[in-house]
Design goal:
eight-stranded mixed sheet, oxidoreductase activity, alpha/beta, 299 residues, 9 helices, NADP, SDR_fam, globular, binds NADP nicotinamide-adenine-dinucleotide phosphate, Rossmann fold
Length: 299
């Protein structure tokens, strides 16, 4: 287990003041605590909350600022600025506007935490096949398109990192077909092939053949599996650019997404993203859960 306290004590270089982190879906739940913990770490000059609702985003910024001012003046986090920028994940125009603002104001991004996601409630009457596209569009396709949009800025980052908040629901073993499982976990997988597999899954869900083709039974699970597979693709492809890419499961947390049924406090769940975002000598292409690296291939 990686002690969270040690993890957030990565070397505090003089460059900390110029480092910028962006957390998507940070106005509540786990994302809020990821942003708070990054701001309190003293490792960033600015932490940006990417949220789709300005009122909720600004309220979260104020809450984080209150925590930071309670730490003053002893802490190095006292000089961290926290701000909100609009982001609707899955809307290309919104991704582009965010990239343009970041480019104009900072010219780079050091850490991106892809936390925003959605899940239909178990009791939602929307048929399974109609839940498929919206789930994949936000959780997987939105995350991929936003990340690709921001990658040119991240490549200019200092100790650049991406952390994708996935889930144990994205475990590889949900895929029944050994052929599909080995394709999705292949070290040679490309992003375009992964996107094609996800499109095929959606088509098979819509025409009702997904079970006989050997897919898993959960749209949310497939969206998170694809986020984990994308993490591995980016980790390999971005290694030469110095960008470390990891993903995590926060655990079953007490948030709106779970209708507050999860036993783990969201501030505890958040640590699973904060560790790979802040630890010294972070590896790449790994899946973190329960505060340590876990083996997704055997999950
Ligand atoms: N909670 C758990 O037990 C659990 C377990 C495993 C993984 N996870 C993952 O952890 C992450 C955070 O989950 P959570 O439990 O904190 O969920 P949550 O309480 O529902 O919060 C989700 C956040 O994402 C934002 N969001 C959703 N769709 C968005 C979109 N299209 N554009 C912009 N923002 C969007 C929400 O904004 P609004 O407030 O505007 O809706 C909110 O800020 C997710 O990736 C989730 O899949 C959670």
């Amino acid at each position: 287990m990686i002690p969270p306290a040690a993890a957030v004590l990565a070397a505090q270089t003089a460059s900390a003041a110029s480092r910028i982190a962006l957390v998507t879906g940070a106005n509540k739940g786990i994302g809020f605590y990821i942003a708070l913990q990054l701001a309190m770490s003293g490792l960033f000059g600015r932490v940006i909350l990417g949220c789709r609702d300005a009122t909720r985003g600004e309220a979260a910024v104020s809450q984080i600022e209150s925590h930071l001012s309670a730490m003053k003046p002893q802490s190095s986090a006292s000089s961290t600025c926290v701000s909100f920028l609009p982001l609707t994940l899955g809307e290309t125009q919104s991704h582009r506007a965010l990239r343009e603002t970041l480019e104009e104001q900072y010219g780079k991004l050091d850490v991106l935490v892809n936390n925003a996601a959605m899940a239909f409630k178990g009791a939602d009457p929307t048929p399974h096949e109609e839940q498929c596209k919206p789930t994949l569009d936000v959780n997987f396709r939105g995350t991929v398109v936003l990340t690709e949009e921001l990658l040119p800025l991240i490549r200019r980052g200092d100790d650049a990192r991406i952390v994708n908040v996935a889930s144990m629901a994205g475990r590889l073993s949900q895929i029944v077909s050994t052929d599909l499982r080995s394709k999705l976990s292949s070290p040679d997988l490309s992003m375009s092939s992964l996107q094609e597999y996800v499109d095929q899954y959606e088509k098979d869900v819509v025409d009702g053949t997904y079970r006989q083709k050997g897919w898993g039974g959960s749209n949310y699970g497939m969206s998170k599996l694809a986020v984990i597979a994308a993490t591995r693709v980016w980790a390999r492809d971005e290694a030469a650019n110095g960008v470390k890419v990891n993903c995590c499961c926060p655990g079953y947390c007490d948030t709106d997404m779970t209708s507050h049924k999860g036993p783990r406090p969201p501030e505890e769940g958040a640590k699973n993203a904060v560790i790979p975002a802040t630890m010294e000598n972070v590896p790449t292409g790994q899946f973190f859960q329960n505060y340590e690296i876990s083996d997704w291939l055997t999950s």
